Amino acid sequence: MIKWGILGTGKIAGKFAEDFRFVKNAELIAVGSRTEQSAVSFAKKYHIDKHYSSYELLAQDPEIDAIYISTPHNLHYENTLLCLNHGKSVLCEKPAAVNCHELKEMTTLAKTKGLFFMEAMWTWFLPPVITAQQWIREGRLGKVELIKADFGFRAPYEPEKRLFNPALAGGALLDVGIYPIAFSLLFAGADVQHVEVRSSKAPTGVDMTDIYHLTFSNGVLADLSCSLGHSFTNDAYIYGSEGYIQLPIFWKSREAILKRYDNEEPLIFKDPRASEGYNFETDEVNQILLSHKTESSIMPPSKSLELLSVMDRIREQTDLKYPFEV
Ligand SMILES: NC(=O)c1ccc[n+]([C@@H]2O[C@H](COP(=O)([O-])OP(=O)(O)OC[C@H]3O[C@@H](n4cnc5c(N)ncnc54)[C@H](OP(=O)(O)O)[C@@H]3O)[C@@H](O)[C@H]2O)c1
User: Fold this and answer.
1) Ligand 1 centre from 193 Cα, in Å?
2) Whole-prediction pTM
3) For labeling, which of 6, 127, 160, 294 is most exposed (least CB within 10 Å)?
4) 8 Cβ below 6 A of ligand 1
5) Is 35 within 8 Å of 42 (Cβ atoms)?
């Protein structure tokens, strides 16, 4: 039985806790917050035994095996180091860090300490995404040639809050743009060679909308976009030589559809899950910890580094540096 703690009591922490009832071989035993009040009310709402009024106290709990970090992007680095330094395995919200420099330090520490670290790229563990991968392995799509994906929604413009605040590493790319990139990396199955970006900025200086094209070393193309100013379809498509796969609202997908160009009956997979889907990434962590390994083969730190290096390249092209970056 793996014993878990949650660090941070925001929106996604609530969803993670809510889905915990679907998780196997694990128990959610503690929560830590910057404030006593938040810790107490979160613990009460999700029936968690222990609550701590600081992240430090949570990390010090000797009963905890793994900590889920759900704080703003700028804090993933320091929160992860804190947990690893107290001997805890870490599942850290996306993006795993703000830049490759931070991530390299985090993963080096995890390796040195022999501890598990994984970015919470939950989409990669969802059954429709796994089904699409299976269809491709079975040759039903032919050769993968093009990937299209977008993630955009109209966020209320609140300059002080996480999404638009440069001090909290806000902006569309790190918040939602990471999903189309991760999706294309998963299905292209090769290194990114070229990155081309067009971007618009919010008044705070973070990116509002990004349109980016990737070319992979095997010739696969990706046409991706993200926005905090506009609602997109949020669908993803994988086009192959024999047909295409559609994943409606791909980042939380519940369905995969395969349409072949030879007019064969479409294949449809509908996920009957009762959860939001956050339990699958947690199951992955538990399985790995129970088998005494330190890396997921699906989302190892090297994949997070690949993902973040694309995001670093995009930010270089759009001249977006956060105030705490030298
Ligand atoms: N996987 C997904 O579907 C998904 C969805 C949304 C967000 N996310 C990711 O999850 C992380 C958190 O997002 P969220 O939407 O849950 O954010 P949120 O609602 O703003 O919560 C963030 C939490 O972090 C803590 N925190 C520490 N320092 C903070 C500061 N200076 N300002 C604000 N909060 C601070 C707070 O918890 P305490 O007060 O308890 O310390 C706060 O409740 C981000 O990395 C985001 O990209 C993932």
Assistant:
1) 32
2) 0.97
3) 160
4) yes
5) no
